[in-house]
Write a structure and sequence with these properties.
heterodimer; A: alpha/beta; 12 helices; B: 8 strands; about 40% strand
């Protein structure tokens, strides 16, 4: 296998982008990534998107987006794994470059959620339709049940959950791409409207439009494009049951643990070697479960990490320095690529006010559904 | 939904029909072709006991459109005496009283209506256990 590096990145602002269509957002992000690297062509394209079909009635995104770049003729594939679609686009591009099949591959993620679709129903198609959604459960409802299981088993409190949102909004307030770049207090989180007990509105990531793209090439070609490439040194992808009822322990995300173990093994590093991480905080409880499953903290000990500053900038392992899905926004298919862009910026020392000092190794963890798929990447500055 | 899609699920939704793997004894609900524990393909059909215990729960305040008139409502993962787990609403009680450890009976109920002229969709809902245990 060849060593692989990211040499360019670009993304739209995240938010309610009423003036931009799915294809327009894609073109903005893709062009920005190519310009960043000074590249004039690509050999192959991956488009991560959960559901162009349901959100805007558009499938067949591979060729559509290749055409939007003025590059018809190249191989272009749409990949889907619900909210992990972006992370899997990155993994697909990584494997294509590592294998020697292609040199310049663009990994992208896109989602247009604010265009009239019934978002609750569309997102719920990532859960088990026949066994669980049929009975009236929603995505916040599934994560609420994970939260209650964690509270019952480990004594986690609603205030612990609120601190995750407070910490991530504090980080996101320093990110000009974020949908909600503003700070919130524990009191505001605990007074926000109930969505699915015990989760309130400010425990939930927002509904977001956005696109993100990163350009990959073999490490030995990277200096043609940038003085500061970032190597991808590990990749892991794992699966679990869609149905929450089929999980032995609803308070634990098995797929996150096994995807992390795969990536750590490939990279030859462990959780304590990671200096900065972006994890999938679609709901505040998810960040707690993910930092436990990845081994940043012991099982059952993730609940106080945000409050005690362990996962804040300046702490032992800063998590979601971008603001995370909570503050930056969560255009589901774009999220996995946007996470990689944050780590790319951090490892190059380009993260501005939210820069983590001496960050050399970074990790991203992107999750589909309520943990039925999880993809982890580990990055190293060169 | 197209009627064959509804009709195919009647055994598990109406009768709580499950499959017990004759190889490893795993109870699978609803029935599958391949045992998720041992990958065996031989099963005995059983009906789950219509009662169970709440494993975890929530109260849905922001529902899907089909359940708009019912919110807030409690939902739970319920484990039956056979060890099978299923997702169901828990009704006939204060929604916020549905917590892990609660004993419930499973009753045959209307789950959803597909508009004014669509299929009436049935299944099981939990209710507080009659014996109070």
């Amino acid at each position: 296998m060849r060593e692989v590096a990211i040499v360019g990145a670009g993304m739209t602002r995240f938010g309610e982008l009423w003036k931009q269509s799915l294809r327009d957002m894609f073109a903005e992000a893709a062009n920005a990534a190519l310009s960043d690297a000074g590249a004039d062509h690509i050999d192959s394209l991956y488009v991560g998107c959960m559901s162009g079909g349901q959100f805007v009635g558009q499938e067949h995104l591979g060729p559509l987006m290749a055409d939007q770049m003025g590059m018809t003729g190249i191989p272009a594939v749409h990949v889907e794994s619900a909210c992990a679609s972006g992370g899997i686009a990155l993994r697909s591009a990584f494997m294509e470059v590592a294998s020697g099949m292609s040199d310049l591959v663009l990994a992208t993620g896109i989602e247009k959620m604010n265009d009239g679709a019934d978002v609750t129903n569309v997102l719920a198609t990532a859960a088990d339709q026949e066994l669980e959604v049929y009975h009236g459960v929603t995505f916040p409802g599934l994560y609420a049940m994970i939260a209650r299981a964690h509270m019952t088993k480990y004594g986690t409190t609603e205030e612990d959950l609120a601190w995750v949102s407070v910490k991530n909004h504090k980080h996101g307030a320093m990110n000009d791409k974020a949908q909600f770049p503003l700070e919130v207090t524990v009191e505001q989180v605990l007074a926000s409207a109930m969505v699915a007990e015990p989760l309130r509105m400010l425990h939930c990531s927002p509904v977001t439009d956005g696109a993100a793209a990163v350009l990959l090439c073999p490490l030995d070609m990277a200096k043609e494009f940038t003085d500061n490439p970032v190597k991808i040194i590990g990749s892991g992808l794992s699966t679990g049951s869609l149905a929450l009822a089929d999980r032995a322990d609803p308070a634990f995300l098995d797929s996150v643990q096994s995807s992390g173990e795969q990536a750590f093994k490939m990279a030859g590093v462990g959780p304590r070697d990671v200096h900065v991480a972006e994890v999938h905080d679609c709901f505040s409880i998810a960040e707690i479960c993910c930092i436990e499953a990845l081994g940043f903290v012991d099982q059952g000990k993730g609940n106080k990490a945000a409050q005690e500053g362990f996962t804040a900038i300046g702490g032992c392992i800063p998590v979601n320095t971008s603001g995370g899905l909570k503050s930056k926004g969560h255009p589901v298919g774009a999220t996995g690529i946007a996470q990689a862009i944050e780590v790319f910026r951090q490892l190059r020392g380009e993260a501005g006010k939210r820069q983590v000092e001496n960050a050399h190794i970074g990790l991203t963890q992107n999750m589909g559904g309520s943990g039925a798929s999880s993809v982890v990447h580990i990055f190293q500055g060169v | 939904m197209p009627s064959p899609r509804y009709w195919r699920e009647i055994p598990n939704r109406y009768r709580l029909e499950a499959a017990k793997c004759t190889g490893c004894g795993k109870v699978v609900f609803p029935a599958r072709r391949i045992c998720p524990a041992c990958r065996g393909e031989a099963f005995e059909t059983i009906n789950l006991t219509r009662k169970g215990k709440v494993i975890t729960s929530t109260v849905i305040h922001v529902p899907p459109d089909d359940f708009l008139m019912e919110a807030p409502y409690a939902m739970a993962v319920i484990e039956t005496p056979e060890g099978a787990r299923l997702m169901a609403q828990v009704v006939d009680c204060e929604p916020s009283s549905v917590m892990p450890g609660m004993e419930v009976d499973l009753e045959f109920r209307l789950i959803r209506k597909e508009g004014n002229s669509g299929i009436l969709c049935y299944g099981h809902k939990g209710v507080p256990a009659a014996n109070g245990s």
